[in-house]
Amino acid sequence: MSIPPATRRTTSLTGSSRLSLSVGTKPAAPVPSAAAGRHLLRQEWSISYVHRPPGTKVDYEKEIHKVATFGSIESFLHLYAHITSPADLAPVTDILCFLSRIQRPGIWEEMVNGGKFTIRLLHPITPVLYEALLFALIGDQFDQADTVVGCVLSVRQTESILSVWVEEEGEGVRSGALKEKILSVLGLPSTTMCEYRANKALLDAASSLKDKLAEGGQQQGFEGGASQHHAYGNRGHHEPREPRERGERGERGERGERGERSTGHYREPRPPRDDGGERRSGWGNGFRREQQ
Fold it and tell me: 173, 166 in Cβ contact below 8 A?
């Protein structure tokens, strides 16, 4: 007798009709006693975190600490009820939720042919949107062809950053369909700034910057003479300045990007200026002008 294909049903969580998990129900195969009565997810997921004090540097990959792995709605809800709310997380903290088969979550080299979509948020709205993204992710609401493998919540001093990671850069990325899906899941307007960055491009840029810093340091050493040779303290000028941690470079988020503005609690593109391209800033004693 042939086994019928897996069916799907939607289970509402936390009394909300908007947030739901779509789970696969397996046919009449024997279910281990430990999983009896549970709603199994299609894939297993793991939650990890990274924390560092503001202003310090760490080896990002070495600081990834796995919290737990779950494969059912019940185990996820048990875990979710005991983890710290995004509103209570201290800067600088990253919460990573990835498929458990991803060995190094949030690391560019692990998904060199993929990338991530990034959305910057102000703190008050972060918990609601993060919960919506988590439920959509583990509830299998993204197409398999989109190869979405995880998300990262990055809590910074003045804002939070949500990023959705893909393992392969497929048609959904190139056509913009996946971006539209992400914004739809979060209930955000289509004008929300949601930037895609390819991991390979980020790796190439980091490598190029490292080479330039090394080359510039050597040239300065020749021009500066012996008195300047040791002017860099413990870090000699021949040693290139380390780029930002691999899971965080380019998304520190302490200050919004120029060209963006805050609308409500999310970022959307700033409209063209009609004042000659100048902007006043209140830093220091009086005003200074910043050229666009």
Answer: yes
Report residue 212: phi and psi, to 5°.
-65, -40
What is the signed CA dihedral for 103, 107, 112, 114, rounded to 10 degrees? 90
Q: What is the pLDDT of residues 211-251, one digit of tens each?
A: 888 887 655 543 333 332 333 233 333 333 344 444 444 44
User: Residue 198: which residues within 8 A CB-CB, separation 6 or more?
Assistant: 114, 115, 169
Ordered by start, the domain boundaries in the chain are 9-26+34-200
**What pTM does this model have?**
0.65
Architecture of domain 9-26+34-200 in CATH? Answer: 2-Layer Sandwich (3.30)
CB-based burial label for 130 (10 Å; 0-12, 13-18, 19+): buried
Classify residue 253 as left (phi > 0), alpha (psi -120 to 50) or beta. Answer: left
- pLDDT, tens digit (0-9, with 9 covering 90-100), for 17-44: 333 333 343 333 343 444 567 899 999 9
Helix (H) / strand (E) element for 118: namely: strand 115-121
Compute the distance between CA of residue 16 and CA of residue 14 in angstroms, rounded to an integer.
5
